[in-house]
Amino acid sequence: MITRMTKYTFLIMTSAYEQFLSRLREAGVVHITIKGEGQAEDETLQKALSRAEQINHILRQGAPDQLLQEKAEVEARLAATQKEAERMRVWGGFSTERIQQLKAAGYTLRYYSCLTKQFEPQWGIAVNEDKTTTYFVSVNEVVDSPLVTEHTLCEKSYDALLLDAQALNALLAAAVTRINVWWQQNEAPLRQELREVEATINWQRVLLSGDSAAQGRLTLLEGFCPTDQTETLNALLEKENCYYVAQEPTEEDNTPIKLRNNWFTKLFEPLTGMYGWPNYNEFDPTPILGPFFLLFFALCIGDAGYGLILLLFGYLTYKNIVKVEMFEGLGPIIMALGVGSTVVGYMMGGFFGIDLYAASWMPEWSKACMFKQLGDETGRIAGYDVMMVLSLVIGVFHICLAMIIKGIVYTRRFGFKQAVSLWGWLLLIIGGIVTGVLAMTHTLSQETTKWVLICIAVVSALAIYVFNTPGRNPLINVGAGLWDTYNMATGIMGDVLSYIRLYALGLAGGMLGMAFNQLGTMVLGDTPSVGSWIGFLLIVTFGHVLNLLMACLGAFVHPLRLTFVEYFKNSGYEGSGAMYSPFKK
What we know:
By secondary structure, this protein is α+β, with helices and mostly antiparallel strands. It has 4 domains: 5-61 and 183-247, Alpha-Beta Plaits (2-Layer Sandwich); 71-164, no CATH class; 263-382 and 503-571, no CATH class; 390-498, no CATH class. The chain is 59% helix and 10% strand. The protein has 17 helices and 13 strands. The strands form 4 sheets. Strands 1, 2, 7, 8 and 9 form a 5-stranded antiparallel beta sheet that branches. A 4-stranded antiparallel beta sheet has the order 4-5-3-6. The two termini are 27 Å apart.
């Protein structure tokens, strides 16, 4: 839910403006409307922004540029030395001074390599040989053959280069130590300075957001306060030398939003934030997003065993027993997804790739709540897999719910006249579905069904084609209605079919898990041994871990896509709101 806000307009004596802001910051309940005018020219603000950027840059890197540059230079020298040592390794250890003495005495050494099978002894002395190549030295002779490759040796031998690499490793360790020591000594002061700089930035932005009035003698400031905290703010304002007006925000105001949800819904608020926060006059989608995302995720996982693993992983993450940076703070939502996946996975009949519904050792009473019970003896409805039909039914319900929410929100924001066409479509789609279900269950007679459908069609047609935009030429309304019909027919059909992915992902995960079980069983054989048991455990463990990781990726991305595209599009959700951020210390 979105907390109600009250818009405040303050009129303060300019001489007391900064003192008023200090008191307002101490109250910590007002979200100030920040204005961009004058920010680029304010020297104090720009210096603070620059310093905040520098500190954030250092904190992200973990050290100043100078220390990191020193470390990078040592790493580059070490990599070059190791590469050169690897090149010189085939030539073995030699004395550079001795080679220079031979050269001074008139003996010139040349270094070559060729394929071992093509080496000719008269070319020179072989000094090393690997699987395919022979390395040899020629004295005072140039080997002129396309079969050989001439090499230039480093001034240092392989052994000398190894000593250089050891020295550079020591330098690298010293550089890393300096960085670690610097971080231990400076991280806390830097974070404290960043908080102070950010406070300065916040203060300056609010300070510059006041509009000058009465030739500079007065300053006008706008802000928003949660309605349930206005009494506290009003008590403070009565003591200040200022005039203020409190009123309901209008559609044109960029009113910040503050979400107020229960513990379960709050788990899914980060998913709403990934798309964009609701506008003040919109409907908070999180109470709908949360349960449906949980259901979609569980259907995509489709395995109770995987759900138990997620539940355990979420608990260990929540208790900080398992620490993975990317999952920090996500323990509760992982636990919720694990519980949902366990329950729904059991209802789908999956447990680590085992089909519980087909297992002879499962008692019949335990299968009563499984989805396949909804179909015939082959687990089908009208010839289609139960889970496929269920996915489409969920899709129809999800989209209809989105359209109902859109109708309510648009009617509240723009009035019923501007939402006539939308309600016409709602009557046509939902009324048609409900009437069809009642007719199929013989709740309505054939004659009654006919007249109900005729009434729905007439009323919907008038709303969609005649009264869709009040006050406009009826012929234009008819054309607009026909175009809307084309968009709805193609859009709704495509949106509903998108929900088949829930069935496809669950089916793919189950089949892949079953395949790993079969591979493991084949390795185990009819007469298991210690080796076959080890092979079985390795295959099954690796296979199910891989399958779980891929299933979790798909179970996160595709439900999010169904929410962000199919649901948000049909609910008219904009998601361009700004979060409530009170001006406080």
